[in-house]
Each structure stands twice: as C-alpha cells, then as structure tokens.
Amino acid sequence: MARSDPGDASDSPGGEPAALDLEAFRRHGHALVDWIADYLAGLDDRPVREPVEPGDIRARLPAAPPERPEPFDELLADLDRVVVPGLSHWQHPGWYAYFPAMSSPPAVLGELAAAGLGVQGMLWSTSPAVTEIEAHVLDWLVDACGLPEHWKTTGPGGGVIQMSASDSTHTALVVARERTRRLTGAPAESQVVYASAESHSSVTKGARVAGFGEVRPVAVDATFALDPDALAAAVESDRRAGLVPSVVCSTIGTTGTTAVDPVAAVAEIARTHDMWHHVDAAYAGSAMICPEFRHHLAGVEAVDSYTFNPHKWLATNFDCSVFWVADRRPLIETLSIVPPYLRDAASASGRVIDYRDWHVPLGRRFRALKLWWVLRSFGLEGLRSLLRRHVGWARDLAGRIDGHPHLETIAPTPFALVSFRHLAGDAATRALVERINASGRAYLTGSEIDGRAYVRVSIGSTWTTARHVDELWELIDTTALSLATPTADGDDHA
Ligand code: PLP
Fold this sequence. Notes:
Layout: H1 6-9, H2 22-42, H3 72-83, H4 105-117, H5 128-144, E1 158-162, H6 165-184, E2 191-196, H7 201-210, E3 214-218, H8 228-240, E4 244-251, H9 263-272, E5 276-280, E6 305-308, H10 310-313, E7 321-325, H11 328-335, H12 345-349, H13 368-402, E8 407-409, E9 417-422, H14 426-438, E10 445-449, E11 452-458, H15 466-482
Parallel strand pairs: 2-3, 2-4, 4-5, 5-6
Antiparallel strand pairs: 1-7, 6-7, 8-9, 9-11, 10-11
Helix pairs in contact: 4-13, 5-13, 6-7, 6-11, 13-15, 14-15
The structure holds pyridoxal-5'-phosphate (PLP).
C-alpha cells in the first residue's frame, strides 16, 4: 500500500515515535470524528448487515503486525476497507433486532474524552472526579427515574456503573449468597435462586458462576409475567426438601416480550421468606425517565437491588449498566479486600466511596463521563421525547399488525418491542423474518415462545424515523401477504 503521508509514520530524528506526535493526533482526531459523522450520516444507504462469510475479514489482514509505523490515513482507510464491510450496523435506522444498543454523538464524545484522560477510578483517591461524578449522576438518575430516595449514595444505598446487566445481576447474586450464608449457615450448593421461566439467561449464568445449587424457573401467566402463586409454591416445596431459598430475580421488561413481573407481589414473598430480591430492568429501566411508565415500578421500594442499561435505550453507547443497592453495606462487606498497596488515608476516613468494592473488577473506566454528557446534552425532556417516539411507533405498528388479516401480536406492547407471528404458522413466521432480513432494509429477530415461532421488532435506534417504521410496515405487510398460503406440511394456525 502506498503511503500518502510518509512524514506521519516515520520516527522523528530525535527518536520519538510518530505515534506520540500530539499535533498529528489533533489532525487525525478531527479526521476520525469526520469519518464517524459521515458513517452515521450514510447508514441509511447501506444494508443493515453487510453480507460477509466466516473468514472474509481475517483474509484482509496481514499475517504479521507491521515492523515499521504505518501512517494514520491508512488506518483510517482500513475502517472502510476492512471493518465496515464486516459489520452489522447496530446504529442503522432499520435496526430492530434484539434490543437496541442506542448511542448518540455526546456519548461517543464522552467515550473519547474518557479514553483521552486515561484514568482509573478504582479508589476515590485514584481520580476523585471519576467517583464523585459517577455517584452524583447515579443519584440524579434515582430522581430522574422515580426510584426510591434511599438508594442514593447520600442515604444507605448507592449506585455504581457496571459493564453489563449480567455483571450487575452476578454481583447481586454473590451478595445474596453471602447474606444467606451468614444468616443460615447454608453453603451455596443448598441455596436456591428463583426467576421466571422468561428471565434472561444472565440470571442462570450469574447463579452458576456464583456457585448456587439450583436456579428454579418459575411459571409465567398468560402475559409471560412471573406467577407469584407459582413462586410461593416453589419456595415452600424447596423448604420442605431441606433447601434454602436465597434470592429471587424479577424482571421489568423480559427479553422475549417485555413482560413485567409483579414486583410488589414478589417482594412480599421475598420478605416472608427472608430472600434477597433483585430486579433486572436491563431494557425497560430507561423508560422510567417518563412518568407514564412508572406504574411498572410498583413495589420496587422494597427490593434489595436493581439494574438497567443506559447502553440499551438511553442514548449511551455500550458499556454502561447502572446498578443500585438499597443498602450498600452487604455489598461492600462481600467484595472488599484491601491489600496494603490499596490502603490510603481517604479510604480509611470513611468519607469516600471506593468503587473497587462494588463489583468484581478492580480497575474501572470513567464511564460516568459519557452518561453525564448524554443527560446534559439531551436534557431529560430530550431523552423522554426520543423514547416516547419509539413507544408511539411500536404501539402504532402493533395496531397495524392486529388489523392485518394474516398477522397477530402475541403479547402486549408496554414499551417499544412488538412481538407477533404469522397466522399461517411457524414456517411462515420464520420465512417472514428471513425475507425481511434478506432485504437489507430492516433487521428483526426471530424467536420462540411456548414452542411457537414469533418475530421481535424492537424500535430503539437513535436514527430511526417515522418514515423508516412506515417502510418496515410495508415490508411486513407485503411479505405477510405473500406467505398467506398454508404450507403443505399442515403448519397452519390461521
Ligand atoms: N437482562 C435482560 C432482561 C436483557 O434483555 C438483557 C439483554 O438483552 C440482559 C439482561 C443482558 O444484558 P447485558 O448484555 O448488559 O449483560
């Protein structure tokens, strides 16, 4: 490859590598921000997922790393040559798969600023601003989302940013395990975790990593929400069998259909049986910035821990999962280990938060910066209007689906996920997903619930507009009509 700017890549006569030239960094940084803006502006003209076969991308990479410095414009050119052709464009306006990974310009700039600062916030003293901004922004979010006042760091509780909801849930499970061990003497192997059959796989994974004996899947009702009678029966049956009920996880907004577990009823059962109660609101938690969704929080004032992902639906790029505990003491007691090299006067004073004691990793990035910048750049009003648009479009789409002769929704649309199927059966439902995804204009997720196929449309890209949702509807409508004939194998539920 020809070097367009050899001066960029050579080491200086004084021996300094060109990669350390701050003037060049300034120039390249501007070029990179231009590139990102062009990428985002041009997404609508690309397929949602680039057509790529396994190994295609690796085949474009040299066998060995370069011995000599390469100029930055070649690195930038490889974003177009190597990286973009191998992407599924999560920020595409036609992205409706999984749950959103919503990002935004202020979040991207916050990420860049955090990388530029390059600080570690494991202790208050290793960068006081990292800890204090994080604690303050999470206290802001308590108010912004209508969460219980006592979760603030100014009270007995507190919030911390984790990498993912899986980490938050794992952390809650470890604290619960230790609490039960302290209270009952029961080893982890005889402790039981309860969560609905529709809870996210991260509950089972977290319980496995934490060493719990059993994860009991609890039956759900017709709306796919946890059935509290089934929970109470399972807890009592386990007690009779000599097991120790330890922790129950409720979900606000399940991955399958955004069902909402009855948090208040679960909290009552948790209280009766002295279990830790963790709430996973990974996706739907962002909606709580809008007061009209807060009825889903009923009972949350009695829970022990709660998590949601601004990196899903609050315009803050991955990674940014927020996690609160109602009482921070058991969390810190469980995770605090203080070798001599991590001791200092600020920690000993008891006047500061040392976030290393609030999760598994020691080192931690300045993730609060991007969340702080998102909240300030949009304002809560700006974020509310983004989310309300998504919910409005989703409910409108659900109405169109239910008015269609060959489609039906399979669950309510409390947030911005529409779950539906083709009335001609599973084969037609799966074909619908495949054909729409193959169009390159939209990307949906096919899944199964109760042994039947269905389609998930999750509206939540920052760049999706009403025009894109109308285009999606046209695709769904015409594809559904073309699949209306029942299949020969009798797969016909119409
Ligand atoms: N919980 C729920 C309800 C989810 O939907 C998801 C992911 O979609 C998760 C947990 C896992 O989130 P993360 O990727 O942040 O671990």
